[in-house]
Design a protein that fits this description.
Layout: H1 3-19, H2 23-45, H3 48-65, H4 76-94, H5 101-107, H6 115-133, H7 137-147, H8 153-160, H9 164-183
Helix pairs in contact: 1-2, 2-3, 2-4, 3-4, 6-9, 7-9, 8-9
Length: 184
């Protein structure tokens, strides 16, 4: 029996023993097949640290799935290499795609309003200003104070030296007048 056939037979026997939870066989397989599987993983994954992590995961799978190995379908090392290769490919697929600086700018949303939106907003702002101009100056000031500056009714009543209920009336009537103006 040549050396390659002997390694094949040893790997198959180790896998069979591992399927029976033989820790010594697992250790022996790790020492004999680990370097080759590490090379496969390193070639596919590209970094040593990721290949080392993947190797540990592969051997965990070997421990759990050794009973699935069928020597009539192929050599033990072929099964181990396929298991390692598939695991490495799964890890590659799970990686987030790397982005270059060229594509980053395209991914950033443009939050600036478009020209059409700006023109509409300018037109609306002009209409609101024109409608405010139809109000008496004191009442326009009260509306701005209440709804733009966040002043309370009491503060506005004190500012304009009028009773609180009168301020409420001013604001209600001014808003109605603004609404009518804007609806025209």
């Amino acid at each position: 029996m040549n050396a390659t056939a002997q390694i094949r037979t040893e790997t198959c026997l180790l896998l069979e023993r591992i399927s029976q939870q033989d820790r010594t066989a697992f250790r022996d397989l790790y020492h004999s097949a680990g370097p080759k599987l590490m090379g496969v993983l390193l070639r596919i994954l590209g970094t040593r640290s990721e290949a080392e992590d993947a190797l540990q995961e592969v051997f965990t799978r070997v421990w759990l799935r050794a009973g699935r190995f069928d020597p009539s379908r192929g050599a033990g090392m072929t099964w181990l290499v396929a298991l390692s290769r598939n695991h490495a490919i799964d890890r590659l697929r799970a990686r987030k795609p790397e982005q270059t600086d060229d594509g980053v700018a395209e991914l950033i949303a443009d939050t600036a309003p478009r020209a059409e939106t700006r023109l509409i907003a300018q037109g609306e702002a002009r209409r609101v200003t024109e409608c405010f101009d139809t109000l008496e100056p004191a009442r326009a000031d009260a509306v701005r104070g209440a709804y733009l500056d966040g002043l309370s009714y009491e503060a506005l009543a004190a500012r304009h030296s009028i009773p609180l209920n009168t301020m409420r009336t001013w604001l209600r009537r001014s808003l109605l007048k603004l609404k009518e103006c804007l609806e025209q």
